[in-house]
Amino acid sequence: MRVNFKFHSELCVGCGSCVIACINENNIDVDQMMCHRNLSKTESVCEDRIQITYYSSACMHCSDASCMEKCPKSCYSVDTETGIVVLDNTDCIGCRLCAKACPNKAIHFTAEKKAVKCNGCIHRVKENLAPLCVAACPRHAITID
Known about the structure:
Blueprint lengths: L4 E3 L9 H9 L12 E9 L2 E9 L8 H5 L5 E3 L6 E3 L9 H5 L6 E2 L5 E2 L5 H4 L6 H5 L5 E3 L1
């Protein structure tokens, strides 16, 4: 069962439920580090109307994960059952090569200079439950298949 995360911007209303769910699920102290999931918005003018588009982003668990290729300490692996890119930052040296390689800007660092990222709620996925960001979205803007 390969997990593919998808974001549907046309459904997102910027409520932040996905971000709050991620913070709660991962016990993230937002004063100490960034959340694994981030919400941003863009504003544009279209036919004299302001159009706001929201974008919820996190690790997309790429099938060809560039973070894994660039890490000199082999801190990244792919779970064979789910396809989720897993980070074990025990040996992380804080070189940031993984973050520079990530096209989604999904890798952040702790105060101790250790890489952190979304783990895809792998424990939930292995129990046939949706990742919490997916489950929390009232508009189904984040899905997996």
